[in-house]
Amino acid sequence: MHILFIVPYPIDKAPSQRFRFEQYFSSLQKKGITVTVKPFLSNEIWDILYLPGRFPRKALAIIGGLFKRFFLLFTLKKYDFIFIHREATPIGPAFFEYFAARWLKKKIIYDFDDAIWIPNYSEANSFFSFLKGYSNVKHICKWVYKISCGNEYLCDYARQFNKNVVYNPTTIDTENYHNKVKNQDTDNFVIGWTGSHSTIRYIEEVIPVLSELEEKYTFQFMVISDLKPTYNLKSLVYHKWNKHSEIEDLLKFNIGIMPLKDDKWANGKCGFKALQYMALGIPALVSPVGVNTRIVDDKINGFICTSPEDWKNAIEAIMKDKSLNKEIAKNTRIKIENHYSVKSNTANFIDLFS
Q: I need a surface site. Which of 55, 110, 147, 285 has the fewest CB within 10 A?
């Protein structure tokens, strides 16, 4: 079997790719399956993608990518399956998906882990936003052979257009990558958050809570991201995200937070922050939005926080009671290994190609 992976970003760069399918490549290859990956963007463009300006360079990269996708259509005969993550092209009509599915009759697995039919774009690339084909998603769902979604909210959307929909959760490699457990016996207490520039706005919900807690307790609020936040907190510590130090940086957290607003876009999120925290033995404090309530069992392996008072009470309870933190931390990794690990989901992923 020969599978072509059509992806937006270079290999080993974007979390959505790393934790949805890249970590299954070795399992596919062990079964004698050949994997070919064709990113839309080069490493060079990825490095400037979310920087402001540089429109001519970005525009040339997009035009070049469109031409590459067009010529790729003439090579599809040799592939048994085509796995498309999010979209084949970031702008314009879904010409690649249409011709591959309708004219060439290729078996396409269409994968997404966000509510990508809802307009959402970075400020750095707002110049190109009017070219985004958000309505393409429903059409692609109709054309393809099978759809792979990261949570049930996304599955429900896809089922409006295609009956062949598979729940394929974002997963954690607990054996080779997230293979350490946080030592909760630390003198200092660290509340942590990790994420990209696109989700950092959700932290704003807990800033007043952290500001109030600063008056009573000594702790650090550590943010790991690609952009430095500007919140006025004396506890704030910033670490620039780095793949090579990602695990060691996360292991500095005693608890990890994942606040979200209850809107359509947030409901499409796949709980990746909570998964990362819990895989490392770090209790997750999350908003009751989307898949979060499926991942986190309240007061067992984390806390569900609905209001500012909930956030305050949960953080304060764990800060004041180290034994409570240890007890909850003990349960976190068990949940991930049983339900959200690469090992537990490998058979489900490989079955997509059947």
A: 55
- What is the full DSSP assignment across 277-289? HHHTT--EEE-S-
Q: What angle do CA 188, 340, 255 make, to 5 degrees?
A: 15
Question: Is 249 buried (19+), middle (13-18) or exposed (0-12) by CB count in 10 A?
Answer: middle
Structure tokens at 72: 């790729």
Helices 322-339 and 272-279 cross at an angle (nearest 10°) of 110
Are the C-beta atoms of 168 and 150 separated by less than 8 Å? yes
At residue 242, does pLDDT exceed 80? yes
Residue with tokens 């009759």: 105
- Measuring CA to CA, how many Å separate 328 from each of 175, 184, 272? 21, 11, 19
Q: Is the pLDDT of residue 52 over 80?
A: no
307: number of Cβ within 10 Å: 11
Question: Does the reported pTM lie above 0.85?
Answer: yes
Task: Show the tokens assigned to 49.
Answer: 């993608």
Tally the domains of the chain. 2
**Structural domain boundaries, residue 76:** 2-168
Q: Are residues 143 and 28 in the same domain?
A: yes
Work out the average pLDDT over 148-176: 97
Yes or no: say if 252 and 192 are a contact pair by the CB < 8 Å rule.
yes
Count the neighbouring beta carbons within 10 Å of the beta carbon of residue 23: 18
Report the alpha-carbon distance of residue 74 to residue 52 in Å, rounded: 35
| Pair (149, 244) in one structural domain | no
Give me 241's structure tokens: 């995200």
Asked if residue 200 and residue 332 are part of one domain, the reply reads yes
Which amino acid type is present at position 45?
I
Instruction: Specify the pLDDT at position 124.
Output: 45
- Cβ–Cβ < 8 Å for 178, 280: yes
Same domain, 142 and 76: yes
Give 99's DSSP letter.
Answer: I
One domain, residues 160 and 198 = no
Q: Which two tokens stand for residue 124?
A: 């750095």
- Alpha carbon 250 to chain centroid, angstroms: 16
| Least confident stretch, 20-24, 59-63, 247-251 | 59-63
Instruction: Please write the tens of the pLDDT for every residue from 8-35.
Output: 999 998 889 999 999 999 999 999 999 9
Other Cβ atoms less than 10 A from the Cβ of 48: the count is: 14
